[in-house]
Amino acid sequence: LKKSREALYVAVLLHDIAKGRPEDHSEAGARIARRICPHMGLSAADTETVAWLVENHLVMSMTAQTRDLNDRKTIEDFASIV
Fold first, then answer.
1. Each residue of 42-60: pLDDT tens digit?
2. pTM greater than the 0.90 cutoff
């Protein structure tokens, strides 16, 4: 559980690292995370978890803010991504 929290904390730190670049900042941020996480001591698995969270952080945000969370279709759509 402690390692899972570590990956989550790093993802929170890095989720907008590429904001302001001309390309999609989520995709660029995931690429950056894959480069720097090993230097932070994260395992390959945790690095991929961080990269996935960074790349998909807007999906989570948009779902929470724009969809009906009580709607079964919303849950199914979100579950198919995660």
1. 999 999 999 999 999 999 8
2. no
Q: Are 54 and 33 in contact (CB under 8 A)?
A: yes
CA distance 54 to 15: 5
Residue ranges of the domains in the chain?
Answer: 2-81
User: Using CA atoms, how far apart are residues 66 and 6, in angstroms rounded to an integer?
Assistant: 29
Q: Find the radius of gyration of the CA atoms of the chain.
A: 14
User: Which positions ≥6 away from 51 have C-beta within 8 Å?
Assistant: 30, 31, 33, 34, 37
Alpha-carbon distance of 34 to 7, in angstroms, equals 12
Token digits for 14? 């890095």
Distance CA 43, CA 53 (A): 15
**H-state helical runs in 18-69:** 25-36, 44-66
